[in-house]
Amino acid sequence: MPLLTPAAIAVGVLNEKALLPFTWLVPWIFAFMTLIGSLKSNFRDVLAVLARPQKLMILLIILHVAMPLIGWLAAMLFFPGDPYTVTGYVLLFAIPTGVVSVVWVSMHGGNVALTLALILIDTLLSPLIVPGTLYLLMGASVQMEIGEMMTGLLWMVVLPSVAGMLLNQFSKGKITAVLGPPLAPFVKVGLFIVVSINGASIARYLKHPDGKLALIIAVTFVTVILGYVIGAAVSRRFRWNDEDAVAVQFNSGMRNLSAGAVLAVKYFPPAVALPVISGMLFQQILAACSGMFIRSRARRLLQAGAAAEQLAAKRGA
User: Fold this and answer.
1) Measured by CB atoms within 10 angstroms of the end CB, which terminus of the chain is less buried, N or C?
2) The dihedral of CA 107, 282, 199, 261: what is its sign?
3) Is domain 4-291 in CATH 1.10.3210.10, yes or no?
4) Per residue in 91-125, pLDDT tens?
5) What residues does each domain of the chain span?
6) How far apart are CA 24 and CA 16, in angstroms?
7) How far apart are CA 278 and CA 136, in angstroms?
């Protein structure tokens, strides 16, 4: 998984002329991927989380207030007078949380119900949040087709998500068990194709790397890490249990970068896509590192608990 997106970007850059004519396919492939990814969602999980919405609201604030502001401030600091790069960073942190985060959360024993509810609600709100964030932070400095973008998000993300959830709900989970395993490889193939075509769209920048590209990658790396750090810090501040802390940490750091890249390529000049594509280079690697941190912390807590039990046993003896 960590090597899939960098390999796809490399394929796109090396096959620029062959892949560019297929750019029109990207929204359709992505809609299919979203539909399959949404088959795990249902109304019950969403309602359970909405009954106690504090964690969900805090996650949405991290995702769509704190991180877009951090991205915008970092871009304004390092790329003044470059509205396209600044827009790229705002878009990077305006897009909803990543569907793949549920995989990492479940692998590390996190709160899957909270994650699924966040993914669904964040996705449903994306036609309002993404254009709204771009408009608030960028204003008239970059020409944007807000209406077209909202429509694109509706068809590419929202409707497939609702369709997947309804299929799961009405089949009482059977469709996930029947179709999930056979379709899983097609999701990875679809992701590879989408990333490759998006990589071809910015190949001219990646084929001739310069100091600016290196700086974009460095700034993206640091700002994305901050998402994980903020999620971990907030969890510790509110003293949430381990399940919730794992979910908050992963969801604060991960984004639906495939959707962001599709939007950047479809509705903006190619330069806007650079921060988003650079995030795709190491999103899965950073998620793996975050998982290592979580496992290390869990081991330390277990060791501390075992040591405390031994000490108590000695005193009792």
Assistant:
1) C
2) positive
3) no
4) 999 988 877 777 678 777 788 778 878 888 888 88
5) 4-291
6) 15
7) 24
